């Protein structure tokens, strides 16, 4: 069995979960779906994969201590932490994951996981990873397609092509569609949400990156080789890293390679992209979801989080109410994506102390 090295990407800020998610402590470092943070849940999920060995966290330099603390909570105090001097999107980050995995095993397979997702069916996840490992061992760039439950317009889609063992060749990637196009994809079948979870043999990914985005590999390699390690932390050469193009693994590699494969999976997945998503994960019907000191009278369908004081609701429905020590946001649950506009307005006003 091939060695699988989980590589967790934990550099995002998560502005749509403001005011809880901040630059100093983004959403992946908060307990949102269980008592454990999203990052800890991701680390434990990766460690449960068959053949898993070691773990790599790829984070921004300011997240070094937070990443170590969460790895410790997951029982992985010695997990390797690779620090990016600046964010360069997921394709260069995947190269860093590949370099780190090759230090574990010359034939290692990387399981690249976003740090801020929720997976409710761990057995389905483990089965999908086993299937993905089989395809990755055959030099495939493997992605995981989530069985869609609705014509969602916020996700890209993957269309399955010819059968490949436990998965399918990727026929095409579809950009986030309009609603009518999403309905067509759903009705046609064989189309899946792109979860942004990838598996690949480390050395094969680097070969494909050299073929498809050679400048990216050149500068990522120089940044790695010019860096140094201090215990469990890998520092990069910042000047070399700054020269790397910034691009997603989807655009730079997966959509261009002829070796892309998809493993369909129905694992109660949610990308935790909004407060409404958290309501969806926890709610039953029109129930309120309440965290903290909340008093609700004649109110339904709301997500309410009280961080530092009592929050009382009377006669309201389908709201998001999130209170922290220095900020409160209130909006209709159906407009929870618009929290991002609050963050943009704060930035424009120079109110960085709230970010």
Task: Report a brief summary of the structure.
It is built from eleven helices and 19 strands. By secondary structure, it is α/β, with parallel strands linked by helices. The protein has two domains: 4-270, Spore Coat Polysaccharide Biosynthesis Protein SpsA, Chain A; 275-354, no CATH class.
Give structural notes.
The chain folds into 2 domains: 4-270, Alpha-Beta Complex (Spore Coat Polysaccharide Biosynthesis Protein SpsA, Chain A); 275-354, no CATH class. Helices cover 32% and strands 27% of the residues. The chain contains 11 helices and 19 strands. The protein has helices at residues 38-47, 64-73, 90-104, 122-136, 179-188, 202-212, 214-225, 238-242, 249-254, 275-282, 339-348, and strands spanning 4-9, 56-60, 80-84, 109-114, 118-119, 141-146, 157-164, 167-174, 191-201, 228-230, 233-235, 260-265, 269-270, 289-291, 294-297, 303-306, 311-314, 319-323, 328-332. Strands 6-9-7-8-12 form a 5-stranded mixed barrel. Strands 14-16-18-19 form a 4-stranded mixed beta sheet, covered by helices on one side. α3 runs antiparallel to α6, α3 packs across α7 and α6 (202-212) crosses α7 (214-225). The model has no long low-confidence stretch (mean pLDDT 95).
């Amino acid at each position: 069995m091939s060695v699988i090295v989980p590589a967790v990407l934990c550099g995002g800020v998560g502005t749509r979960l403001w005011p809880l998610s901040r630059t100093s402590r983004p959403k992946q470092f908060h307990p949102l779906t269980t008592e454990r943070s999203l990052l800890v849940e991701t680390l434990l999920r990766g460690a449960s994969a068959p053949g898993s060995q070691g773990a790599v966290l790829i984070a921004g330099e300011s997240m070094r201590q937070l990443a170590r603390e969460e790895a410790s909570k997951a029982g992985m105090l010695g997990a390797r932490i690779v620090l990016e001097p600046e964010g360069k999107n997921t394709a260069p980050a995947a190269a860093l994951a590949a370099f780190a995995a090759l230090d574990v095993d010359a034939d290692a397979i990387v399981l690249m996981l976003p740090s801020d997702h929720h997976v409710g069916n761990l057995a389905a996840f483990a089965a999908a990873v086993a299937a993905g490992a089989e395809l990755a061992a055959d030099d495939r760039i493997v992605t995981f397609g989530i069985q869609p439950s609705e014509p969602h317009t916020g996700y890209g889609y993957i269309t399955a092509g010819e059968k490949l063992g436990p998965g399918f060749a990727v026929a095409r990637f579809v950009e986030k569609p309009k609603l009518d196009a999403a309905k067509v994809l759903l009705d046609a079948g064989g189309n899946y949400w792109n979860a942004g979870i990838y598996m690949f043999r480390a050395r094969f990914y680097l070969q494909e990156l050299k073929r498809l985005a050679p400048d990216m590999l050149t500068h990522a390699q120089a940044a790695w080789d010019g860096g140094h390690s201090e215990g469990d932390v890998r520092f990069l050469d910042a000047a070399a890293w700054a020269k790397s193009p910034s691009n997603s693994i989807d655009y730079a590699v997966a959509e261009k390679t002829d070796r892309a494969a998809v493993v369909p999976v129905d694992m109660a997945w949610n990308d935790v992209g909004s407060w409404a998503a958290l309501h969806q994960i926890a709610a039953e019907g029109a129930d309120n979801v309440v965290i903290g000191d909340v008093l609700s009278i004649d109110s339904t369908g709301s997500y309410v989080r009280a961080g530092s004081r009592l929050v009382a609701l009377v006669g309201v429905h389908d709201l998001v109410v999130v209170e922290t020590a220095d900020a409160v946001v209130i909006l209709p649950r159906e407009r929870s994506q618009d929290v991002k506009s609050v963050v943009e307005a704060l930035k424009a006003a120079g109110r960085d102390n709230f970010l």
